[in-house]
Amino acid sequence: MGKEEKPDNPKEQANTESRNAEDIERAIDALAHVLQRHLLMFAYTTYAYRFNPAVRKSPYGEPVEYISAWDLSICGEEDDGDFLLESENERLLMRYLEGVWSKFGRGKGKRPTTQTVGYDEEKDRVTVTHEDIEGGSFPAWHLSYDQAHYYLERITGAVLDAVTNLRKADILNRFNEIADFAGDVAQPAGHPTWAIPSTKCIEENIPWEYPQQVLEVASRVRDAKSQVFKRYPKKAKVEKEKTKWALLWKLYETTLKILVDAFMDKFWAKPM
């Protein structure tokens, strides 16, 4: 029980593994697609923030620095999120994320700091020192509006469905690790649902590392496609055979055409 039955005929087995590898390639493509869409929808429906007593207070009375993607000129229907994959929208959102990471830092992020410029007379050079601002926090993510969790839940479901399809296609379990990684980033750690209540506590909101994790896993999934031929060598062998016969057939067609043309020139040439 639970084991995949293999054909007795080696040729049939090779063809079966080849078809299976093609199913895996399609499953990996689909998973890469929904992961990228998931990342873009996350960027579109959340905002980055951190507490910083040095900034002017927000309308809600809290000293908060925040960066939102809502200022971007992005248009489309939010139903399935595919509009975010349009080249211009994707470019804007990825540039937005890079800008956020540039300001707030990668990994666990950076606290707000003050910058002091001085002069070291002994070394005859300008010095710059940074000190954490008291009361400042590491950054986190928060949903931009009340309905945002609805779209994120739908796209999370699409990621989990794509993971399931990959597991079904991968009968030899050679891409389990990739499937596990993708399943783990379908939602942020510690949050079984996207209905995350608004709170002033950074630790209770979406971890800062989350979109970086999704980006890394999406990259691993795309790279995994190049491993299908190595992990399912029968597919490589079948594809090599197809290529060999295609080349032979092309050679046959070319040779036949040359012979026919030579025959026509010799026996059917019109007299001058």
Describe this structure in words.
With 272 residues, the chain is mainly alpha-helical. It has two domains: 10-109 and 136-228, no CATH class; 232-272. 51% of the residues lie in helices and 11% in strands. The protein contains seven helices and five strands. Strands 2-1-5 form a three-stranded antiparallel β-sheet. Helix 1 packs across helix 7 (233-267) and helix 3 runs antiparallel to helix 4 (176-184). 26% of the residues are buried.
Keywords:
two-stranded antiparallel ribbon, mainly alpha, 2 domains, disordered N terminus, 272 residues, three-stranded antiparallel beta sheet, elongated, 11% strand
Uncertain runs: 1-5, 9-14
Write down the domain tally: 2
Basic shape = elongated
Largest beta sheet, briefly? 3 strands, antiparallel
Beta fraction: 5-15%
Class from helix and strand fractions: mainly alpha
In sequence order, what are the helices and strands, one letter per element? HEEHEEEHHHHH
- Strands in their spatial order, largest beta sheet: 2-1-5
| Helical segment count | 7
**Termini distance?**
80 Å
Measured as a percent range, the helix fraction is 40-55%
Overall mean pLDDT score? 80
- DSSP summary, beta strand count: 5
What's this model, at a glance?
By secondary structure, the chain is mainly alpha-helical. The chain has seven helices and five strands.
Secondary-structure map with pairings?
Blueprint lengths: L9 H36 E6 L12 E5 L18 H18 L8 E8 L4 E8 L7 E4 L4 H22 L6 H9 L25 H15 L3 H4 L1 H35 L5
Antiparallel strand pairs: 1-2, 1-5, 3-4
